[in-house]
Design brief:
Layout (H helix, E strand, L loop, with lengths): L1 H28 L6 H6 L7 H4 E2 L13 E4 L9 E6 L4 E7 L5 E2 L4 E8 L10 E7 L35 H5 L6 E7 L24 E6 L7 E8 L2 E9 L2 E7 L6 E9 L4 E6 L13 E6 L11 E10 L6 E7 L4 E11 L4 E2 L5 E3 L3 E13 L7 E5 L4 E10 L4 E3 L9 E5 L10 E10 L6 E2 L3 E6 L4 E6 L3 E3 L4 E4 L4 E5 L4 E9 L10 E7 L2 E2 L3 E2 L8 E6 L7 E11 L8 E8 L3 E6 L15 E3 L7 E5 L6 E8 L12 E7 L2 E5 L4 E7 L5 E4 L9 E6 L12 E7 L3
Parallel strand pairs: 20-30, 32-39
Antiparallel strand pairs: 1-4, 2-3, 3-17, 4-16, 5-16, 6-13, 6-17, 7-8, 7-16, 8-9, 9-12, 10-11, 13-14, 14-15, 18-19, 18-21, 21-26, 22-25, 22-28, 23-24, 23-26, 27-30, 28-29, 31-33, 33-37, 34-35, 34-36, 34-38, 38-39, 40-42, 41-48, 42-47, 43-46, 43-49, 44-45, 44-48
């Protein structure tokens, strides 16, 4: 028995020493890789990454973050930054989106970037993963390592298989990033499933050949499967494999090249479509492109508002590969607008599509960029302005919201476009830039149509366009208006016909219907009208109706404009309308007071309904008049005088009307043909009344009331 034990023990020692030797060889094979080279070949991408991403100094698991923001040194990629995730052995690195740069799963989005994964297959690090997560640890989220020991196969994302007795997949899932979905770019295939490997994190990739891309849910128990491994005379052990989703095996990821990655999120379909290697760094198509659409279970995120954090996390185990990311474009980086305004300064009007600008008019183009909001400043803006035909610019400048002005060269005559590099970034503190081009419409000999001209404003972060309107630069033609008679005196109530003549440099080529007559009467614009081709060439007439003219002096101003907006001189015509008469339009020849029943007392009688008195004033608006009434005695057939008096009552005030004449009304005309009903506001108790005393005797009495109308004093 002792001999048997010795043999068994010796066998174990030999096996263990061989295993340890193999492990040492693997460690020696993982030498460090220089980090400088990828930065010298990196493609063009974004900068200001510190505003877009958070790189925690230490993750919540206590491991120091190896990631850093590096300046790209490739001269062909100016103003570009990269995030270096790993560069040496035993590293965990990662960068998470800032609050302003979070991902909204309820909105479509496209992300474009370049990833660099190293140069050596045999000495490759473990790779990196794109992750969307709503982990409670936020920007400190990473795999939970025991005693801060980095296990490369996790990539800092997946669960940690560091317990050889663990059998529950939920336990390992709890050590991965929670509430997450990941797309891994695995550069080291972990396929060791021996008894001695149990608990050391070496089996996630069993069944997958070589470097690969795959998706999954790091915090889900369904992502992991426990496998029992046995060894003679030893207790059973367990290791975990991973249930990769849509794995793409046998790839060459660590080839020393930058790989283009496009991620397109479809919010309604809840899918992420990734395209890997669609283009090369020089922009040419890559025939080895991989495209895959992944259905994403968004309930895994447990996000109440649809916002999740995203980023890249990667690890190096015993090898020291480089992994870097350059971001080409991201959603919601910033929001800005562009607008263009074209002004005909000579006519002080905004030029719109289809309008006309006269030759030699001064013209201004104003392009306004307005920074609305964003996670980063809008910098390195290049303005590419397409220029209109028929306009020659002589000055140009760029003015910023902070008041500073950038002087730039005006486009040369005949240029079809001009490009400007804006010297300042736009931001919340400096939100606008106005590019102003000033010039003059060319002295064209024939009408010249411009086309709508686009302006594009681009940077590596944002692009927007605006389009200036199309219009026509028209020939500058001298037009003369001649109206032979420029002073008229007419009777009130008469229409007035005015005739004019239009002359132009090329009158024989001008049709009457091309000419529009514009006029104003006493400061009020009249409806414009076109001359008629039925009339003699160059001749027009217009009629002013009597009701358009007021008594006294009137002023008519006339000018004409052709269809190319060439305007004539303005002619002023004086029109005097003679005043009319003041008189009674309606007056009753005979009117009655109501009957009185004699009872030995004083009484007052009102009027019957046959009284009428309407004044007509044709002398013009603003003229005034006075109305007087006088009255004599009322007598019967026998000549007996009625003991009475005529009174005019206005409210509570009563005035006796006698033979001397009393003013009972006055009025100022409100129109040139004014009619005023004197009795319109009289009631049964107001106006002219008759008062009798107690001595009145029965009978029929008559008398005369005289109305006197006169011009009121001015």
């Amino acid at each position: 028995m002792r001999q048997v034990r010795r043999l068994l023990l010796a066998g174990f020692i030999i096996w263990a020493s061989l295993w340890a030797s193999a492990a040492r060889v693997q460690a020696v094979d993982g030498s460090a890789e220089a980090a400088a080279t990828p930065l010298t070949t990196a493609p063009k991408g974004l900068n200001q990454l510190s505003q877009l991403f958070t790189l925690p100094a230490t993750f919540t698991n206590g491991v120091k973050n190896s990631a850093s923001i590096q300046k790209v040194t490739n001269a062909a990629a100016p103003n570009t930054e990269a995030i270096e995730i790993n560069s040496a052995k035993k590293q965990l690195g990662g960068a998470w989106s800032s609050d302003a740069n979070r991902f909204d799963i309820n909105q479509d989005a496209t992300l474009k970037m370049w990833v660099y994964l190293g140069t050596s297959t045999s000495k490759a690090g473990d790779g990196l993963a794109f992750v969307m997560q709503n982990d409670a640890n936020g920007t400190g989220a990473a795999s939970s390592y025991t005693k801060q020991t980095i296990i490369g196969e996790t990539m800092g994302v997946w669960g940690v298989d560091d317990d050889k007795q663990r059998t529950d997949a939920a336990e390992i899932a709890a050590t991965g990033i929670q509430n997450s979905w990941a797309l891994e770019f695995d550069t080291y295939s972990n396929t060791s499933k021996s008894y001695s490997d149990a608990g050391s994190g070496t089996a996630f990739d069993v069944g997958i050949k070589g470097q690969h891309i795959a998706a999954g849910y790091p915090g889900s128990a369904d992502q992991y499967t426990a496998t029992k491994v046995t060894q003679l005379l030893w207790a059973d052990r367990y290791l975990f494999t991973q249930n990769h989703i849509d794995a793409k095996p046998s790839l060459s990821l660590t080839d020393g090249a930058w790989h283009h990655l496009v991620l397109k999120w479809d919010a309604s379909a809840k899918t992420m479509t990734y395209t890997f290697n669609d283009i090369n760094p020089d922009g040419s198509d890559n025939a080895t492109a991989i495209t895959q659409t992944e259905a994403v279970d968004t309930t895994q995120f447990n996000s109440s508002d649809g916002l999740v954090r995203w980023g890249f996390v990667g690890t190096n185990g015993s090898n020291a590969g480089n992994s870097l990311v350059v971001f080409e474009s991201l959603p919601n980086l910033l929001d800005a607008t562009a607008a263009v305004k074209v002004t005909d300064n000579t006519k002080d009007k905004v030029v719109t599509a289809g309008s006309k600008v006269k030759a030699k008019d001064q013209v201004t183009y104003e392009y306004t960029l307005d920074y609305q909001a964003g996670a980063v400043d809008w910098d390195a803006i290049k303005a590419d302005l397409k220029l209109p035909t028929g306009i020659t610019f002589d000055t140009a400048e760029i003015k910023y919201a902070n008041g500073e002005v950038q002087t730039v060269a005006a486009p040369a005559a005949g240029d079809s476009s001009v490009t400007y590099d804006l010297a300042q970034a736009l931001s919340t503190s400096n939100p606008t830039a106005v590019i102003t081009l000033k010039g003059q419409a060319d002295d064209v000999k024939i009408n010249t149509a411009t086309t709508a001209t686009a302006a594009t404003f681009t940077s590596d972060k944002f692009e927007t366009t605006t389009t200036a309107p199309d219009y026509t630069v028209t020939v500058d033609q001298d037009i003369q208006l001649y109206i032979p008679k420029q002073s008229y005196t007419i009777d009130k109530g008469s229409d007035l016909k005015i005739t004019g003549l239009v002359f132009a440099e090329d009158s024989e080529q001008i049709k009457n219907s091309w000419i529009t007559v514009n006029s104003s009467l006493n400061g009020e614009k009249l409806a414009p009208f076109k001359m008629s081709d039925d009339d003699e060439s160059g001749v027009f007439s217009m009629v002013l109706k009597a009701d358009q003219l007021h008594v006294g002096d009137n002023e008519l101003k006339v000018h004409v404009v052709d269809e190319d907006e060439n305007e004539s001189n303005e002619v002023t015509i004086a029109i005097k309308v003679s005043s009319g008469a003041l008189g009674f339009k309606t007056i009753a020849a005979t009117s009655k007071f109501a009957a009185i029943t004699v009872n030995g007392k004083a009484q007052t009688a009102t009027r019957e309904n046959d009284w009428q008195l309407v004044v007509s004033d044709e002398r013009g608006k603003g003229s005034s008049w006075q109305l007087q009434a006088s009255a004599g005695d009322f007598t019967n057939e026998d000549g007996q005088v009625l003991p009475s008096q005529i009174v005019y009552k206005n409210g509570d005030q009563a005035t006796v009307i006698n033979g001397a004449g009393t003013i009972i009304d006055q009025h100022e005309s409100t129109s040139d043909s004014d009619e005023y009903d004197v009795m319109q506001n009289w009631t049964a108790d107001t106006g002219l009344l008759i008062e009798t005393n107690a001595a009145a005797t029965p009978g029929s009495y008559s008398g005369k009331i005289t109305w006197t109308l006169s011009n009121a004093p001015s």
